[in-house]
Amino acid sequence: MIRLPILIGLLVFIATKSTVPNTSKYFDIVLKDKIVGVLKVSQNTKDSTTYYQSSAVIKTRLIKDFEVDYNYDVSFNDMLLKKANVQITVNDKPHSETITLWKDGYYQITKNSNEENTIVEPIAYTTILLYFQEPVDIDRCYSEQDGSINHIVSLGNHTYKKINSQGKENTYYYNNGILKKAVIDGGIINFEMVARD
C-alpha cells in the first residue's frame, strides 16, 4: 500500500516540475516595402534546458519566383549551447544545413554532412538569442547558420551591428530591451524584419 502514495507523489512532482511557458514572437519580413514573409521565434524552458526554434518563409520574385525557408532548432543547458541545427531550403531544395553539437568538451560543427570545425570554448550567446535578449555588453556571438563566431558592435541608442565571418552585416534595433527591427543580409536575399506588436 505504501507504493501507491509514493507513485502518486512522484507523478505530482513530475507534473509540477519547473516549466516556463512558451514565448513566441512574430516578425514581418519586408523586402522593398512589401511584406514577403513571416518569422516566428519561440522559446521554451524546462528545468535547466531552454529550447529555441525559429522558422521563416520568404516568397519573392527576383528574376524568377523564390521561396527561401529558414529553420533553426537550438538548445541550451545551464545557459550554454548544447545543440543547434539550421536548415535552409530554396524552392523546396536543400541549400545548406549546419549542425553544432557539444560533445566531450568541444563543439563539433558539421556543414552539409561534412565535419568542418571544432570550437573548444563554451558558447553562451548565439544569434537566436538576439530575438530574446538585447546584447548589452556582449561583443561576440556564435552563428548557428554558418558555424562561426561573429562580432557584435554597439552603435549606441540600443542599436547593434553583427558582423559575420564573411564580413556581412546585420543591424538590430531594440526598445526597452525588446528587438523591434533588424536589417538582414540573408546571403540569398537582403531584407528587414519588423516586430509585430
Keywords:
single chain; 197 residues; mainly beta; 14-stranded antiparallel β-sheet; 14 strands; 63% strand; disordered N terminus; DUF6134
List the helices and strands and how they pair.
Layout: H1 3-15, E1 19-31, E2 34-46, E3 49-61, E4 65-77, E5 80-90, E6 93-103, E7 106-111, E8 114-119, E9 140-143, E10 148-156, E11 159-163, E12 169-175, E13 178-185, E14 190-195
Antiparallel strand pairs: 1-2, 1-14, 2-3, 3-4, 4-5, 5-6, 6-7, 7-8, 9-10, 10-11, 11-12, 12-13, 13-14
Describe the structure in your own words.
With 197 residues, the protein is mostly beta strands. Helices cover 7% and strands 63% of the residues. The chain has one domain. It has a 14-stranded antiparallel β-sheet with strand order 8-7-6-5-4-3-2-1-14-13-12-11-10-9, with no helix packed on it. A hairpin with a 2-residue loop joins strand 1 and strand 2. The protein is globular and about 45 Å long. The N terminus is likely disordered.
